[in-house]
Amino acid sequence: MTAVSSATPPLAKYLASTDKRTRDKSIKKLSVFLSESSENALPKEDMDKLWKGIFYCFWMSDKPLVQQALADELAELVLMITTTSQSLAFLRGFWETMVREWSGIDRLRIDKYYMLVRRYINASFKLLSRAGWDKASCEEYNNIMTREGGPLCPSDLRVPTSLAYHLADIYIEELDKVMAAEEKSLPAPLNIVLAPFFNLAALTPNSTTYRRVQSTLLDPLFRSVTTQSASNSDDNTRTTKRRRLADSESLYPHLIQNACLADPSSGKLGSVPLKQGLSKYLFDTASNPDTKDSNRRKMYTLWKETDGEDLDD
Fold this sequence. Notes:
By secondary structure, the chain is an all-alpha fold.
């Protein structure tokens, strides 16, 4: 990214133009700008200006097909940047902007921003997958999501709850899509990739937020891995519950078939050890001294339901 400081302000200005042709041309220039190699990421001030322009570029897009195409194009920018570290810096700017501007999005525009967030979650997982689920990159991404001002920060009251709810709704679904598309990907390290939501479930002071995370992310995750575990059980040893689980369709088949707990280089895990490892991670998170007492009780209850006892004869 050459000539960073001088190029960014006018680029942001043109991105926010009221003229669609000007905005479209600026997006094309932005793609070239971001794909140029550089050792340095944009300074924060310039990144903020750039994302302000991108936000309002999307704000002014109308008609569903136009919005979908623009959302795809904007998310693709994450993958055009030459280094993972700079892509993560770009994602940091995205989330800071979403958190800052979210409460000002009116009801007529909110759906298209939900779509944009979904596209960016998908692009983020593609980025991490292409980086081989590098631990440092995953942890930096998690820090972006959970730090103060991040969309999954459990203690920052400025973060809109509706944004966190939407992320809980789509997170594993988009991860499953990426694992389906990235056929040669290393297994996704679930204890690392899903850490922001285990953390949110443990630390949120909001009971509604906890319920949303459990109902739309934790419950489906454990149901999916339990279903896969049951389907892999020997037919002669299945209980009625095993057979019922085996007959139901796994919610995230591509993810469960190519996942591990922490170290992708060690290869994917079978569904039984994967389930056991996730259950242990849930128990350990619930046992953390910092976990809210009310959340701890709910997490222990969930652990008892998913620990494998329900599959015993």
